[in-house]
Amino acid sequence: MAAALCAVALLLLGGCGTRVAGDTNDANSATSTASLPWTLAQPSRVTAAQLATDGRTLTLAAQVPDGKHPCVRAFKAALSDSSQKYMWVQITFSSPDGDKRSGCTGERTASTRLRLPEPLGNRELIVDSSTQFTADGAKLPALRLCGELGCHPPATGCTVSSYEQAMIAADAPEHSYRDAEHCDGKWLVIDFSWRTGPVCGDTTATPSGCTSRLGDRWFFRAKPAGWKVITASPTGGCKAVQRVEPAFPTALCATLTPLSASLHPSHPPQSASATPLTPTP
What we know:
By secondary structure, the protein is an alpha+beta fold. The protein has 5 helices and 14 strands. Strands 1, 4, 5, 7, 8 and 9 form a 6-stranded mixed beta sheet that branches. Strands 10, 11, 12, 13 and 14 form a 5-stranded antiparallel beta sheet that branches.
């Protein structure tokens, strides 16, 4: 009887027993994924770079699409250009993640290796046009990931370039104006403001365009990597900053007056340092 039932099942289903994963549905899914359009892409983020002892072999790690089925093919790095100061490397791969049917909605870390035509030396490594690494000051084999101001940001001090680094650390709005600085080289206070309200040139607006401003005040401490934010407060005196950092010198904050939340000057700040901030790429 069992044999007869199996024979009938064989005719209807093509066989008896349990289906092995990957025999039909998985194979169909793989075929479906393979039929999706695969396009050239770049990593969402380059996370690390290592340099072998030969000074030429690079291992690069980056974030790539991930999902239930294959999401990345031909993941590779190639040297695109070089000069006396820089080496440019491009990471590319193919992926169907542009199509929602691919299921490539996650991310994972992938690594690729590249042998440079000559040693990196003291040159900076630029990956995918925006991420910079350097061997200078690095704990090899790992290269040092550079920051927004490049691999060698301005040293902390009472200079314009140093103040701009502090403004970036404070995430100040683009085109902000530094209204005042109080600095001794180790500690820093910056008052800055940014335009708000109607568009410049709109004479029908009240207040007129480019005259309405908002302001803020930030306190910093010097660190080896640059100015580090302590706190921000529009209040006067030292209470707000010394509550967070008791060592902040009273000489730099005792005379601070409270900032108005909304300022309406009829002209730009007159101090020599009152220049708009344009963050360094």
